[in-house]
Amino acid sequence: MLNETSFLTAALDSETKLEAILNTITDGVIAIEKNGHIQLFNPAAEKLFGYRREEILGQNVSILMPAPDHVAHDGYIANYVQTGIKKIIGIGREVTGKRKDGTVFPLYLSIGDALLNQERMFVAVVHDLTRQKLDKEALQASEERFRDVAEMTGEWLWEQDTEGCYLYSSSAVSQILGYQPEEILGKSYLSLLTEEDKQHWATKLPPTHDVREPFHRLVNRYRHKDGHEVFTESTGKPFIGQDGQLLKWLGVDHDITVRKRYLDALHLRDRAIEAVSVGINITDASDKKNPTIYLNPALSRITGYTKEELQGKDMEILQGPDTDKTVIGEISRALREGRGCEVVLKNYRKDGTPFWNELLISPVHNEAGKLTHFIGVQSDVTERRRAQEERHELEIAKQIQSSLLPKAPLKVDGFQVAGVCLPATHVGGDYYDYYYSQDTLNIVIADVSGHSVGAALLMAGVRNTLKAESRKTDPLAPDRGSAEILHVLNELLHDDLNGSDMFISMFYMRYHPALRQVCYSNAGHNCPLWLAADGNQCRELDAEGMVIGVRKDVFFEEKCILLQPGDKILLYTDGITEAQNRAGEFFGVDRLSELFAAQRCESPQASIDNILAALRKFCGGQPFSDDVSLVVLNVGFQE
After folding, report:
1. In terms of pTM, does the model score above 0.70?
2. CA distance 401 to 144
3. Cα–Cα distance for residue pair 22/5, rounded to 1 Å
4. What distance in Å separates the CA atoms of residue 599 and residue 597, rounded to the nearest whole number?
5. Do 374 and 470 share a domain, yes or no?
């Protein structure tokens, strides 16, 4: 506006030129005599004040600028000259203008002096500030409303200088960090951060005064006045002056501590779901087809289907020809009724291999109680189910095995016998028996390769066959010996044993009390220990022979010895001699022999109990790694 005034002053030598110039200027231009009368009034001034030129020329300028911006009596400009108007020539100021209709409005006034027709004149250039005032007031009102809303929503408004120190802080800082606004004024924002974040931002961000770009949703970790961590989401904008210099920073922080912890918990939950070994899928309950909308990697590993292949599909894709229809019906009813269920069913992988799936379905409801999703937890329990079936089979085998063993020690005038079988698992491959028939004591101990129902059934067959063969009588044929009986057993059982990849080691002896004679044969079993009444060391009873079931037409040797009152015989399986202590040392035959020799005066049952106690002590309380069976015969026993 001052440039326009200077330009106008330079053009006053020509009224024509002056008129043309005045018509193009958008601000009001008024020429005033020393006595305050208006001599020039351009079109912009007419529009601004509402007067036509002919109405205003010659009028005192006070009609346009009422008190307090003029002297009350006439001679407005003259009085201004007298009271110091010369001091404001060339200097702009804000004054109040008055229109023809009486309304007042803000003006920006610039005054210069010039010679017009050899007469000193004052030239005033006026600019309407109404719009600027309204805009400024609107901006101020908007800022106040924004601050009020921010205060209500808990937003922390702040201003920082070029070094990041607070110039202003809204009261929300007390809700977020526990400080009063005046407590943080002059402090750097870094001083309020946690030590970890302080070091992070101090090294990662350039100095505040070098930053010119705004930032959005920057997550900060502050330290609350009471010491706990506070997470905020910060947005800031630099305030740049006309000379391009950074003046300050304006910003807002929003407390996201609760949201951050909730999101962290969700992320942790998501990572846990992704990491678990069980398969998890989530289906959309609002769709009758229950399509899968999420599945974790474990479900893909279990089923062989990729995430893309299962996404949007019903899990019935895993069902097959042998899937139990009753279980499928239970799942369908649960889904229709919006309830959970827990079932085990046979499913099929992508490659067609079956597996047993333990499925747990749980419904999910929203806050209004409406069913929205189903969560399925699927576990491959094939091995567990197989183990359960095997345990069931072993329980059956255990019952079979226990039914085969003698129920109590056998006591007859002239001898006493007792035995025990301790399986390493639910059922063992060991077997022993003793029975008195036709004035003959039969004792057998055996070890079947295998721990199953099949092995138990096989041993039952062996027992029955052995008893049948040992009790056969033929008046035209001599008495059948132990070797012949083992030969018959091998011939009868070879095909069954060979077909099942099993074999049997066995030691069989027959004691004739009247003759005090023991005849025995060995089919590849551990040699029993014989403790003679007149000796202090044990001797082994051995005879040539191969385990039963390897091949046919095997030769079994039969040997006989005479026993004296006080003799003892111990039959055992390799579970006792191959037992190990914690150092890996075997119990061994020598240790067993010494221990048995110390049982000379003990009954068969007491001898067994003492040997087992010593074995458990040797093993240090560890479970036996193999079955342990013992049979003890005392000769010349008296009640």
Report:
1. no
2. 93
3. 11
4. 5
5. no
